[in-house]
Amino acid sequence: MSVDYKFVVKVRDAAKQKRIPKEVSAQLKGVAGAKAIARMKKESVDCPVINQEVGFLVCFLCPSFLRRVTGEVHCAGGQGPPKEWLL
After folding, report:
1. Nearest C-alpha neighbor of 47 from the set 33, 31, 59
2. Cβ neighbours of residue 81 under 8 Å, at least 6 residues apart?
3. What is the pLDDT of residue 78?
4. Whole-angstrom distance, CA of residue 73 vs CA of residue 87
5. What is the Cα–Cα distance from 17 to 25, expressed in whole angstroms?
6. Model pTM score
7. Which of these, 23, 25, 36, 41, is most buried using a 10 Å CB contact count?
8. What is the strand order of the sheet 72-75 is part of?
9. pLDDT of 74 higher than 90
10. From CA 86, how far away is CA 64, in angstroms rounded?
11. Sheet holding 43-47, edge to edge
12. Which 3-state string (H, E, C) describes the chain?
C-alpha cells in the first residue's frame, strides 16, 4: 500500500479564533453547513508547508489538503495556501 501524503498534522482547538479571509468564506458556501463552518472556525493546525499556525478552514481549502481523519489532516506537502489568505 502506497502512502499518498507527506505530513500528518493534528487539528486542535485554537486558543483564539483565527480570522478567515472573505475569499475563503466565499468558497465554502455550499460545501459545508453553517454549523460545521462555525465549528471549524474555532480550530487550527500548524501548517508544515509554511511553518505557521493557520485556521483549519484555510488548511481545508489549501491545494495540499488531502483529507481529515479523526482529528488529523493528511497533507500532500506541495504548495501552501495563497499568500493573501494568510493574515
Report:
1. 59
2. 47, 50, 54, 58, 59, 61, 62, 63
3. 80
4. 21
5. 15
6. 0.85
7. 41
8. 7-10, 72-75, 65-69
9. yes
10. 15
11. 12-13, 43-47, 52-55
12. CCCCCCEEEECEECCCCCCCCHHHHHHHECCECHHHHHHHCCEEEEECCCCEEEEHHHHHCCCCEEEEECCEEEECCCCCCCHHHCC
Q: β-pairing, 72-75 with 65-69?
A: antiparallel
d(CA 73, CA 47) in angstroms, rounded, equals 10
Contacts of residue 46, Cβ cutoff 8 Å, sequence gap at least 6: 9, 10, 52, 53
For the chain, percent of residues with pLDDT exceeding 90: 28
Residue in the structure block whose three cell numbers are 489568505: 85
**Look-up: residue for cell 460545521?**
36
**Residue 12 in grid coordinates:** 486542535
The per-residue pLDDT for range 22-42, each reduced to its tens digit, is 888 888 888 888 898 889 989
